[in-house]
Amino acid sequence: MASCSGITGAGDRCRAIAITDSDYCHAHHPDRAEARQRSASKGGKRGGRGRPQAELNDIKDRIRTMVENVLAGSVDRADAAVCGQLYNTLIRAVSVELKVAEQRELVERLEELETLMERQNPAGGGRRWGT
């Protein structure tokens, strides 16, 4: 199981598994720079939800690479099984992060609506939605 030869933004060596027949993972492979750039530009258009989506895309790419490596025999099945379990944990964490972000967004929008309603009817009048 070969590790990526790439260097992270923090200056450390990348710990990801290298793509089959390569010294790099998806995140550092020079031939995949254009695909990464497209994903990054899409992420910025998601209203603050781009990072979790980018993480999910990265996890999916890593899982695909691991499947290729297992099928090619370059990654031990037991190692791949453990990595699969860890990737499932990451996916659950990203899913929770997305749900929290959606709830925050909904609360903010609801507070904005309440503020607008108060401005339109400062006395309140006891009126509520649906009454």
What does this structure look like?
With 131 residues, the chain is an all-alpha fold. The chain has a domain at 30-120. It is 60% helix and 0% strand. The chain has helices at 33-43, 50-72, 77-120. The N and C termini lie far apart (65 Å). Residues 43-49 have low confidence and may be disordered.
Number of helices: 3
What percentage of the residues does DSSP assign to strands (E)? under 5%
Proportion in helices: 55-70%
Write the H/E string, N to C: HHH
Structural class: mainly alpha
Global Rg: 22 Å
> How many beta-strand elements?
0
Uncertain residue ranges: 43-49
The shape, in one word, is elongated
Estimate the mean pLDDT confidence.
Answer: 81
Describe the sheet with the most strands: none
Write a concise keyword list for the protein shown above.
single chain; 131 residues; mainly alpha
Summary of the model, kept short:
The protein is an all-alpha fold. The protein has a domain at 30-120.
Question: Which SSEs are present, and which pair or pack?
Answer:
Layout: H1 33-43, H2 50-72, H3 77-120
Helix pairs in contact: 1-2, 2-3
